[in-house]
Design brief:
By secondary structure, this protein is mainly alpha-helical. The chain is 71% helix and 0% strand.
Length: 172
């Protein structure tokens, strides 16, 4: 079904494109070296997990009876919906699992772009009394824009490699 495929494409761009930028900015703001390394490793690690293992982990997390999320929701008195058995929730689970698997790896290029920013920009902003958020808004984001545009074009091209067999409904 082409509408289901275009829905997944849109969601992957809307969700999967900006989150690595946000993650890179957060990681760039971490000043404690040991915590920064742990943060980076935990966000990069899912990229190296095979698709089959990732599918098994999703089942373990989202199982309505014994899943990790179901047990957390039970603690606060809520019931876990059966996300994996509802066809309408497939696109969301597919997109969010893809984002979870690749967000750390995708943020590496943005971290490299952030590390290439001239430190005198930050020093001048500090002298002018800029806060961290103002530095992010007026230094980091504008200087990340060229990198982001190139990666958006590459991301749009890589979506074409998405197998429609995962998205389309079986023919009878």
């Amino acid at each position: 079904n082409s509408s289901a495929a275009s829905d997944v494409y849109k969601r992957q761009i809307l969700v999967g494109f900006p989150l690595p930028i946000v993650l890179a900015i957060i990681c760039n703001q971490i000043r404690v070296g040991k915590f920064k390394k742990i943060f980076q490793v935990t966000t990069y690690l899912p990229h190296f997990i095979s698709t089959m293992v990732m599918c098994g982990m999703i089942i373990l997390f989202l199982s309505p009876s014994s899943g990790l999320l179901a047990n957390v929701l039970k603690l606060v008195g809520l019931k876990m919906p059966a996300l994996l058995s509802k066809p309408g929730s497939f696109a969301g689970v597919y997109v969010w699992s893809d984002v979870w698997q690749h967000i750390g790896w995708d943020s590496i290029i943005y971290l490299a772009a952030l590390s290439a920013i001239d430190p005198t920009f930050y020093e001048a902003a500090t002298m002018d009394g800029a806060s961290r958020l103002q530095k992010i808004r007026h230094i980091d984001l504008p200087l990340l824009l060229p990198t982001a545009m190139i990666l958006l074009i590459l991301r749009a091209g890589s979506l074409l490699s998405l197998s429609l067999i995962h998205i389309s409904e079986p023919t009878r």
